[in-house]
Amino acid sequence: MARNQPITEQRTTSRNLRVLTHLFGFLRPYRKNLAAALLALFIAAGALLGFGVVLQRVVDHGLSSGSGAELNQALLLFLLVVSVLSVAVAARVYLVNWLGERVVADIRKAVFAQVLKLEPAFFEVTRTGEVISRLTTDTSLLQVVVGTTLAVAVRNTLLFAGGLTMLAITSLKLAALVLL
């Protein structure tokens, strides 16, 4: 191996997502926080799906009834759903970002501990700056994956399933048309 050969040429790239399963080991110490983040995610998704139902109630019962009391009740329900949605989204964002930071900090500790165990001969053939740059870039990418991408994927899956369920309850014919 030549001294000037960059490490990126030596490494084969993989698009296998099974590599991400190693993250679960780093998430294990934060199970309670992960459960809280998932709970906030479920509550936010439920509130977002309920948003349309409550808006329908405001229009159908509040505005068309002509009764001020029914409109006030519908708007209070609307305000409650918006408040629950806001708190749940804030909790989800905070917890997911916190988890991302902690997991990446633990990964960095493990990776740099492994780098310290490498033989000096490794650093004779590999540029130190490139190793450090690669480790920093990879851990930053993992932070994005753990901190936002996984939460967005779970949220979108929940919204899709919930929206499809609500659509099927409303009209099976329309749901079948959408799925085709």
Output the keywords.
180 residues, mainly alpha, ABC transporter transmembrane region fold, 83% helix, elongated
Percentage of residues in helical conformation: over 70%
Task: Give start-end ranges of low-pLDDT stretches.
Answer: none
Q: Please identify the structural class as seen in this structure.
A: mainly alpha
The CATH H-level homologous superfamily:
ABC transporter type 1, transmembrane domain
Overall form: elongated
Quote the CATH topology: ABC transporter transmembrane region fold
Average pLDDT, to the nearest integer?
Answer: 84
Describe what this molecule looks like in 3D:
It contains seven helices and no strands. The chain has helices spanning 7-10, 23-27, 31-65, 68-116, 120-125, 128-170, 172-179. The longest helix has 49 residues, at 68-116.
Which helices and strands, and how do they pair?
Layout: H1 7-10, H2 23-27, H3 31-65, H4 68-116, H5 120-125, H6 128-170, H7 172-179
Helix pairs in contact: 3-4, 3-6, 4-6, 6-7
In a nutshell, what does this entry contain?
The protein is mainly α and 180 residues long. It has 7 helices and no strands. The chain has one domain (29-179): ABC transporter type 1, transmembrane domain (ABC transporter transmembrane region fold), CATH 1.20.1560.10.
